Amino acid sequence: MQTVSTSNIMEQQNIAIMLSIKIKMERIPFRNQDNDYKRIHQLCKRYLREHCEHEIIYDDIDIDLDTSKTIMYCKKCETCFS
Ligand SMILES: [Zn+2]
Questions:
Q1: What is the value of pTM for the model shown?
Q2: Residues, Cβ < 5 Å to ion ligand 1
Q3: Among 38, 57, 60, 71, which has the minimal tally of Cβ within 10 Å of its Cβ?
Q4: Could you tell me which residues come within 8 angstroms of residue 58 by beta carbon, excluding any fewer than 6 positions away?
């Protein structure tokens, strides 16, 4: 049982590190990113999507005064699902 919880903690650390890399990578404007940079960013996003135990949040965002849209995103890894 202990190995399970240890691997869970490791997984959580991996997620936290990958998320901080993703956030740092997004500081560079898209137009200034070369292909390798974009590829690494994609891999970070894919890692989070596949390894995070998502905690989905539903949120209404206003598009204009009369229209709103429900978005779904993960509270932990900030991946958007809508
Ligand atoms: Zn997540």
A1: 0.77
A2: 52, 54, 74, 76-77
A3: 60
A4: 70, 71, 72
Distance 48 CA to ligand 1 centre (A): 6
Any idea which residue has 């903690």 for tokens?
9
Give a yes or no: residue 6 inside a domain.
yes
Residue 22 within any structural domain of the chain? yes
Tens digit of pLDDT for each residue in 25-70?
Answer: 999 999 999 999 999 999 999 999 999 999 999 999 998 989 999 9
Domain span at 47: 2-74
Q: What are phi and psi of 81, to 5 degrees?
A: -115, 10
CA 65–ligand 1 middle distance (angstroms) = 30
**79 found inside a domain:** no
Ligand 1: centre distance to CA 74 (Å): 5
